[in-house]
Amino acid sequence: MPPLTVQLAIVHSETADDSALDRMTLGTYAPQILWLDNDEPVSDGLIYEARRFGCGVVHGTAAQAVLVPPLRYDEVVFGLTGAGWLFIEQAYAQLNAAKEV
After folding, report:
1. Which residue among 42, 78, 95, 99 has the highest number of C-beta atoms inside a 10 angstrom radius?
2. What domain of life does the native source organism fall in (predicted)?
3. Position 91 pLDDT exceeds 70
């Protein structure tokens, strides 16, 4: 096990529309939940996209309603560490840069 393992990232959002998912940047590193800290209705598009990407969604000021459960840790990280994902991202960026030349 790596020295630091993030089991769940909780990302806070004050909006309940589709733009809330733009805050979800940790999906390849750890399971994540989007906490919609408001009482406005949640858009169907947000729920659809959250399920599609495996992002959990909780709603309400006390996070009392679980709308979408998050994926388990082993379903997200595929055995790679943060350093492993960083290597893959940097290699991909170099390949993309080479392809554009």
Report:
1. 42
2. Bacteria
3. yes
